[in-house]
Write a structure and sequence with these properties.
Blueprint: H1 19-27, H2 32-47
């Protein structure tokens, strides 16, 4: 996904987040390198 290892392991209050919730959240996300590539293409098109 482009995130560091254990990026989603702890919540904002420092509590451990259950694996099921972490997998669900990541399953509903977009890979960061993919989003970066798409946004760079849009930015290049807008600059032209």
């Amino acid at each position: 996904m482009g995130l560091p290892d254990n990026w989603t392991k702890y919540g904002e209050n420092g509590e451990l987040i259950p694996s099921m919730h972490r997998y669900r959240a990541l399953g509903n996300s977009v890979a960061l390198p993919c989003a970066d590539y798409i946004m760079a293409g849009i930015a290049a098109a807008l600059r032209e």
